[in-house]
Amino acid sequence: MAVNVTARQIRRGLKGQVDTALTLSGVNPQSLEIEITEHSMVEDIDSNVAQLAALRSLGLVVVAEGIETEAQRVFLTEQGCCAQGFLYSHPITADALTELLQRHARPGPVWPAPSTASGRPPLRLA
């Protein structure tokens, strides 16, 4: 479930509002996506960062959009956020994405080999 929030909602205490909405709706916090515009964030950065930090108890991943500079990426990484934006890539077509993925595909398994440190054989799915 994706929810857009405004600067006003952030100022009023986003954590409390999210807690209330989750309790009333019964939605699993892991299925919640909160979208915050760049404009909302820059109005009162210190307070807004604190509000987002409070949401970390829900186990949410914060993804910052619109990242254009290395300085922005470094700052957000230090804050524990994921980032996306023109710093990484401008929008591309589905065909261009397919070509890019094929060009950079690596042979072999995608997932690391399971550990057998427990002495038990790894679980195998048929």
Q: What do you see in this structure?
A:
This protein has 126 residues and is mainly alpha-helical. The chain has two domains: 1-60, no CATH class; 61-105, no CATH class. Helix content is 41%, strand content 10%. It is built from six helices and four strands; from the N terminus they run βααβααβαβα. It has helices at 7-11, 14-25, 38-42, 45-54, 70-78, 94-104; strands at residues 2-5, 33-36, 63-64, 82-83. A two-stranded parallel sheet has the order 1-2. Strands 3-4 form a two-stranded parallel sheet. The longest helix is centred in the N-terminal third of the chain and has 12 residues, at 14-25. The two termini are 32 Å apart. 6% of the residues are buried.
Give the helices and strands, then pairings.
Blueprint (H helix, E strand, L loop, with lengths): L1 E4 L1 H5 L2 H12 L7 E4 L1 H5 L2 H10 L8 E2 L5 H9 L3 E2 L10 H11 L22
Parallel strand pairs: 1-2, 3-4
Structural features:
two-stranded parallel sheet, mainly alpha, globular, disordered C terminus, 4 strands, 41% helix, 2 domains, 126 residues
